[in-house]
Amino acid sequence: MKAPGLPLDRRSVSEFTATRLSIYVRCLAALEADGVAHVSSKDFARRFDLNSAQIRKDLATFGEFGVRGVGYEVSELKRHLTSILGLDRTRRVAIIGAGHLGQALADYGGFRSGGFSIAALFDNDAGKIGMKTRTGVDVRDVADLSRIVERDAIEIAVLAVPAAAAAEVARRCVAAGLKAILNFAPVRWNAPPGVRVKNVDLKINLETLAFYIPNAPTKGAPA
Amino acid sequence: MKAPGLPLDRRSVSEFTATRLSIYVRCLAALEADGVAHVSSKDFARRFDLNSAQIRKDLATFGEFGVRGVGYEVSELKRHLTSILGLDRTRRVAIIGAGHLGQALADYGGFRSGGFSIAALFDNDAGKIGMKTRTGVDVRDVADLSRIVERDAIEIAVLAVPAAAAAEVARRCVAAGLKAILNFAPVRWNAPPGVRVKNVDLKINLETLAFYIPNAPTKGAPA
User: What are the helix (H) ranges across A97-157?
Assistant: First the structure.
């Protein structure tokens, strides 16, 4: 197995591929926990309902993994992909907007573990600045964003502001030196070059679930 | 083009495939808005960084789409997939838990449009029951869950409760006749047969975004 060699232009990798890598790491962690040492590309592909050519293509971007006749070495592939995703170090996150969503995200376990930590929550409402969320995250004045981003080496902004405020808040994040923005606001805007924006689509979770509901409503019927 | 024919056992379709169908519909809507009438399976695959064999396999489960040499007819394929996902009718959703997350979800545009409507928000806290969210969703007593699910033909439960309460609340949802549960609580439990649970993983959005940040922190540096 060869470690990733050539410097890779990450911008050339699609968001679909990056998301699949995250999913692969979760699956490899589950296999590792089950004591599985090796997995064939065919079995690995089957878990994701993908074909093995697709898996090989996804991985080939980052190096040569897998051995013919043996498959992938689970722990080693997991370690490589974790490193490729940059999850082997902690990135600091600022959440902008201390409304219901911002507070929920600040207290969300997944945003405070395994590669991420919440550095601060920001708002422009004097009534919220100075308070703490349930788990103890401080609400800071968004006027101090640049200073705190610099001081605390924050790398990611999470936008949890109303749609009308999102473009202006995103501009402030970019001015503060942030180059990665996770946008929960239901609005799209043009990010300047060198800034990556990911728009979160919560509805797709409902759609995926709805697919499994029979078409005739089964109102109140017993199982 | 042939419409889906044989009755399909939806349980045999993986969540990965169902999610891809949702994403395909979004892409087809974007193509339609751009006035594109046809798309080749190769170009369609390229948009998702998938190979065209994978796209054909995903679609083949549901019927025969596409014409050799012409590709997919954008509006027709979108209409078929929308129907397959069941998004051509409105499903009623109940959110359980009127904390920050539950209120944010009740007011989230994506949960109140295109195939879904929020019927009610439930809690067991007397201090919250009777209030309204910012956009006017009523907070009801969770003791009335069964009655309201039956009366309002609610089909989907969204769990926005603390981890410690999730399994018990899920049991109440199942007892109320709900067969689809979208779980935001950071906990897993065994759903009874015939009940579909989708666990929401917000962290994967951060991971996908973090992939694009250069490995050396660029603390406060100008673009």
Answer: 100-106, 145-151
Q: What is the pLDDT of residue B216?
A: 53
Q: Is B205 on the interface with A (CB under 8 A)?
A: yes
Name the nearest CA neighbour of A182 among A161, A205, A156: A156
The whole-number average pLDDT for the span A131-160 is: 96
Pairing of strands B91-96, B72-73: unpaired
Nearest CA in chain B to A194: B223
Whether A200 shows a pLDDT value over 90: the answer reads yes
Asked whether residue B190 carries a pLDDT value surpassing 60, the answer given is yes
> Which candidate, B154, B152, B41, B167, places its Cα nearest to that of B95?
B154
How many angstroms away from the CA of B194 is the closest CA of chain A?
Answer: 7
Tokens found for residue B44: 């369609």
The H or E element containing residue B198 is strand B196-199
CA distances to A5, A14, A17, A101 from A11, in Å: 17, 7, 11, 29
**Do the beta carbons of residue B127 and residue B145 sit within 8 Å?**
no
Closest-CA residue of chain B to A222:
B177
Q: Check residue B122 and give its pLDDT.
A: 98
**Per-residue pLDDT, B219:** 45
Map tokens 């911002």 to a residue: A102
Handedness of CA B176, B183, A32, A14 (dihedral sign): positive
* Radius of gyration of chain B, Cα coordinates, nearest whole angstrom: 21
Q: Can you tell me the mean pLDDT for A64-74? A: 84
**Residue A101 predicted with pLDDT over 50:** yes
* Structure tokens, B144: 């009335």
ipTM: 0.88
Q: Which positions in chain B touch A11 (Cβ < 8 Å)?
A: 212
DSSP B83: H
Which residues 30-89 of chain B have a CB within 8 Å of chain A? 48-51, 53-54, 57, 84-87
